[in-house]
């Protein structure tokens, strides 16, 4: 098992190199001059050229990319062109808010999706199953930004029970978490139902029922435990997706996370922050996937036995 974990950690190196190369290439060929952004559009050309030379922007692509990699390995992602603060510090200051929002969204998704999926599978083709699948279809199809706007309209403007934006109290977390959680809940519901339907038809489930075990014990201890692998996979992917994909939600609710920071950085052509943000989110997503793979071994002993 330790060898497998070590191998997966080593695989993160080419993944991060590939991500860094793609991001740096895109930002390198993006129109705009960071030196002119810092000095202003009316700055003399001589001053702009001097700053470009000082920042190393006149160097060839390979030299600039090599310098970027070398500095990134030391934890230096450069300085923000707007605030002049270290980009790494700006990102890590915002990351806890994104992590909190993603965790709350996944919690909402799991609390809604798994119970509904289990009941739908045990009552296949019932009225509840039909409505749950309609809910899942609506949840998958509904854009997050539209749902967020509608929630602001209902709970903040009409009912006035929740703040429309901001950060700092549990009340500020409710609407953003529900916005990103309900769409993920729809995906988890469908996967839970599909996985449970496959398991409940197995012979060992019929044997457990023939022994006289209650339906609750059969579903919770036998069926659900053996159906967890695909469910955990989807939950892990959704968590990684929310860490990097809550950009619109953070923007709508003025949530001070990494997604909103990157949107502002893209608008202001703040290249170091954009590059560092993409690297941080890619690393986080990879670590979440690694954690999910390790979790498989503790859910299913047969997987753990493969690494012995």
TrEMBL record:
NCBIfam families found in the cross-reference section: Opp2B
Q: Which InterPro entries match?
A: BPD_transp_1_N, MetI-like, MetI-like_sf, Opp2B
Q: Where, subcellularly, is it found? A: Cell membrane
Q: What PANTHER family does this protein map onto?
A: DIPEPTIDE TRANSPORT SYSTEM PERMEASE PROTEIN DPPB-RELATED (PTHR43163:SF6)
Short name of one Pfam family:
BPD_transp_1_N
Protein name per the record: Peptide/nickel transport system permease protein
- Transmembrane stretches in the record are 9-29, 99-121, 133-159, 171-188, 228-253, 273-299
Source organism, top-level taxon? Bacteria
One GO term in the molecular function aspect is:
nickel cation transmembrane transporter activity
Show where the ABC transmembrane type-1 domain sits: 95-296
Keywords on record: Cell membrane, Ion transport, Membrane, Nickel, Nickel transport, Transmembrane, Transmembrane helix, Transport
Question: What is one GO cellular-component annotation here?
Answer: plasma membrane
Q: Where is the signal peptide?
A: none
Q: How does it sit in the membrane?
A: Multi-pass membrane protein
The family note in this entry says: Belongs to the binding-protein-dependent transport system permease family. OppBC subfamily.
